[in-house]
Amino acid sequence: MAVIYHKGDLPKDLDFGDCVAVDTETMGLSLVRDVLCVVQLSDGNGDAHVVQLNRENYDCPNLKSLLENSKVEKLFHFARFDVAMLGKYLGVAISPIFCTKIASKLARTYTDRHGLKDLVRELAGVDLNKQQQSSDWGAEVLSEAQLNYAASDVLYLHAAKAKLMDMLTRHNRLQLAKNCFDFLATRAALDIEGFGEMDIFSHE
C-alpha cells in the first residue's frame, strides 16, 4: 500500500479509472460550524491519495474536475455527509454516486451494524484502526498516523461494494439502492439548508 500526500490539489490527469472511492475529513460533523480539511481517494488497487485542502480558497481544480466527472462513479461510505461537505466547500455537483452505508442497510438486514469498521471487517476481512478518527485534521501538517487512517477509509470500499452489489442483486434491491443514490444530492442540499432533522415527507 502506498499513501500519496498532496497539498492543495491532485496532480493533473491522475487516472482513477471508472470508480473512485472518496472520503472526507473535517473539523467535526456540523455542516454549519465545521470546515472541510482533507479529501482522500483510491481506485481500489491498493494506493490512496490524501489531499490536504487550502482552506483559504479551496482552489483545487483537478480534484473538482474528478468529482464532477459523470463518467467516474464516486464511491462513498455515508455519502450524505461527504456530498454535502464537498458541495458546500468545493461547489461541486457530484454524480454518479454509490454509498456503501445505504447499500448495507438495504442488503445486510440481518444486522444493525452498518458503520465502516463493521462493514469492512465482514466484507473485506480487514480490521480498521479508527484511533485517529477524532484527531486535529486542521493541523498544518498531517502526521503519518493521520495519513494512514485517512487512507484506510477508502482502500477497501471497492471490495465492500462488490460484495454489496451481489447481495443487492440477490435480494432484488439494486434498483431501489440506485434510486436512493440518485436522491443523495437532494438529501445533501436539504441538510445544507437546515432541513436535516425534519422528515419533509411525513404527514405532520
TL;DR of this structure?
The chain is an alpha/beta fold and 204 residues long.
Explain how this protein is built.
The mean pLDDT is 95. The chain has 7 helices and 6 strands, in the order ββββαβαβααααα. It has one domain: Nucleotidyltransferase, domain 5. With 204 residues, it is an alpha/beta fold. The chain has a 6-stranded mixed beta sheet, sandwiched between helices. A hairpin with a 4-residue loop joins strand 3 (36-42) and strand 4 (47-52). Helix 2 (79-90) crosses helix 7, helix 3 packs parallel to helix 6 and helix 4 (116-124) crosses helix 6. The relative contact order is 0.17.
Taken as a percent bin, the fraction of beta residues is 15-25%
| Fraction of residues in helix | 25-40%
Note the main sheet. 6 strands, mixed
The ordered H/E elements are: EEEEHEHEHHHHH
Features:
single chain; 204 residues; alpha/beta; Nucleotidyltransferase, domain 5; six-stranded mixed beta sheet; 7 helices; 6 strands; 40% helix; 17% strand
